[in-house]
Amino acid sequence: MLAVARLIRTVTWLVVAVIVAGILLWVLSANPHNTIVSDVHDAANWLVTPFHGLFSVKGAKLHLAVNWGVAAVVYAIVGSLLASIVARATLHRRGYGRVRPVA
């Protein structure tokens, strides 16, 4: 089960990295016709779909950065919490979470 917690953490940070890369590519005006830029932006856009239009901010770059930034933070927090819960459940099952009386 600790491997599952590690997998959750890894996937979480990969998702956050894709979103942050998408923000940076947009804010820094990377060429949208480049295949890598387009693929990263499409993947990030799909990941942040529930967060579209969360905040209305003037300016396209700021609007995207704020909304996608919130999405990255939420993914990081939720993923870390899930990984911690799985890891603690595993350790508790192994007996590391119990207080043993001193004889």
Describe this structure in words.
- This protein is mainly alpha-helical and 103 residues long.
- The protein has helices spanning 2-27, 35-47, 60-93.
- The longest helix has 34 residues, at 60-93.
- The radius of gyration is 19 Å and the shape is elongated.
- The model has no long low-confidence stretch (mean pLDDT 90).
Summarize the structure.
By secondary structure, this protein is mainly α. The protein has helices at 2-27, 35-47, 60-93.
How would the blueprint of this fold be written?
Blueprint: H1 2-27, H2 35-47, H3 60-93
Helix pairs in contact: 1-2, 1-3
Instruction: Assign the structural class, choosing from mainly alpha, mainly beta, alpha/beta, alpha+beta, or little secondary structure.
Output: mainly alpha
**Share of helix, binned:** over 70%
Rg of Cα set: 19 Å
Largest sheet: none
Key terms:
mainly alpha; elongated
